[in-house]
Amino acid sequence: MTTIEKTGAEPSARVEDNGGPLLEVRDLHVEFHTRDGIARAVNGVNYSVSAGETLAVLGESGSGKSVTAQAIMGILDMPPGKIPQGQILFRGEDMLTMAPEERRKIRGRRIAMIFQDALSALNPVLSVGYQLGEMFRVHQGLSKKDAKAKAVELMDRVRIPAAKERVNDYPHQFSGGMRQRIMIAMALALEPDLIIADEPTTALDVTVQAQVMDLLAELQREYNMGLILITHDLGVVADVADKIAVMYAGRIVETAPVHELYKRPAHPYTKGLLDSIPRLDHKGQELYAIKGLPPNLLKIPTGCAFNPRCPKAQDICTTEVPPLVQVTEEDGTELPGRGSACHFWKETIHG
Ligand SMILES: Nc1ncnc2c1ncn2[C@@H]1O[C@H](COP(=O)(O)OP(=O)(O)O)[C@@H](O)[C@H]1O
Ligand code: SF4
Ligand SMILES: [Mg+2]
Fold first, then answer.
1. Which pLDDT band holds residue 281 (cuts at 50, 70, 90)?
2. Considering the entire predicted model, what is its pTM?
3. In this structure, are strands 243-248 and 226-231 parallel, antiparallel, or unpaired?
4. Contact indicator for 303, 323 with CB cutoff of 8 Å
5. Is the N-terminal amide bond of 79 cis, ω within 30° of 0?
6. b/e code 266-287 from CB counts within 10 Å (16+ = b)
7. CA of 141 to the centre of ligand 2 (A)
8. Helix ranges (DSSP H) in the chain
9. What integer pLDDT is reported at residue 107 of this predicted model?
């Protein structure tokens, strides 16, 4: 991998680091009031991310990953959405209770978001240079000419070839991978403290996926940003994440430093996800798939929400919700950053 060239602008001074996490989500609940009832999309999520750290949020479609991100960004549809409980602390301050103008300053400037679908996030009738430049014209009051120069600089930075010649091109003139690089450039423009990337490579070919992911990871390190990487694909996060939070039916069911999670999962759901990754050394073998589907959020199963699909389920699993508990070695030594919400986590990790 080549190192990217510095193109001038140094990351600007950030809000003073208070030593704590950049972002902390505490006991977050989100529900949607629909005609058919209340869909409980997020049911007590806790996670945090610090500067320079990458948290991967993993889970099948419908597990509440994007809704949690939308709550952080303040872009939830309310109504039908509602946040009955929880806190979202940015540098220790709860964004859910701060004044709207304070919150607006954080969103977009201090926290930026990258979406899966660049084509619908970009305006089709404006050149990419104009859209990138707009960030600088609006937020920093730069002239048109200076803003365009900044746009070219950013396009270079995310390694779009011939940036100078392409700055006046329109979104549809770029490939999917290049468009996603433009999304990354937009997110980086104001040098945020935190980027939330929601399935940023899901729409791309596998090889392009890896390139875009590598670029994102590299920029994150260089700018010392926090990164929340949302994905349903365990394969894409192994090399870039520091820690993983696995979500199921709106809850975190397992947390772990990334390599430990791969080596020794402490939750049957994580184990199922790992066993369903295609592996080159298992060619020809039938791929494991977790049986069944994620639950209907209007009617989440009692006890452990995963129980109808779990090969390890016992009676207690249908009656008692397993709390997220500290995972330890067999001798009781705590494993830092590791938690599991399974009644039988010991058997799962040590069995
Ligand atoms: N605007 C909405 N109205 C009603 N229900 C919604 C809305 N947005 C999301 N949901 C519900 O929240 C669930 C979780 O969605 P989401 O967070 O997007 O899942 P994912 O983990 O795939 O990102 C969805 O399956 C849906 O039931
Ligand atoms: S609590 Fe029970 S159903 Fe849930 S994951 Fe553990 S064993 Fe499976
Ligand atoms: Mg999603």
1. low
2. 0.91
3. unpaired
4. no
5. yes
6. bbbbbbbbeeeeeeeeeeeeee
7. 55
8. 65-73, 100-106, 118-121, 128-140, 144-157, 163-166, 176-188, 206-223, 234-237, 258-263, 268-275, 345-350
9. 85
Query: What percentage of the chain has pLDDT greater than the value 70?
Result: 92
Distance 328 CA to ligand 1 centre (A): 33
Ligand positioned closest to the Cα atom of 199? 3
290 CB near ligand 2 (under 6 Å): no
Q: Count of residues for the chain? A: 351
Neighbours of 335 (CB within 10 A): 16
Whether 134 has a pLDDT exceeding 90, the answer reads yes
Q: Is the CB of 59 under 6 A from ligand 1?
A: yes
Q: Are strands 251-257 and 243-248 parallel, antiparallel or unpaired?
A: antiparallel
Ligand 1 proximity of 250 Cβ (cutoff 6 Å) = no
| Conformational region of residue 14, where left means phi above 0, alpha means psi within -120 to 50, and beta covers everything else | beta
Residue 97 and residue 30: Cα distance in Å, rounded? 15
* Ligand 1 close to Cβ of residue 115 (< 6 A): no
Q: In angstroms, rounded to a whole number, what is the distance separating the alpha carbons of residues 101 and 99?
A: 6
pLDDT tens for residues 208-246? 888 888 999 999 999 999 999 999 888 888 889 999 999
The closest-lying atom of ligand 1 relative to the alpha carbon of residue 69 is 17
Within 13 Å and on the Cβ side, how many CA atoms surround 333? Answer: 3
Question: pLDDT digits over 80-116, tens only?
Answer: 999 999 999 999 999 999 999 999 889 878 999 998 8
Structure tokens at 295: 């639950």
Tell me which amino acid residue 185 is.
A
Tell me which ligand sits closest to the C-alpha of residue 69.
Answer: 1
SS3 153: helix
Kindly state if the Cβ of 342 falls inside 6 Å of ligand 2: yes
Does 57 contact ligand 2 (Cβ within 6 A)? Answer: no
Q: What is the mean pLDDT of residues 302-310?
A: 97
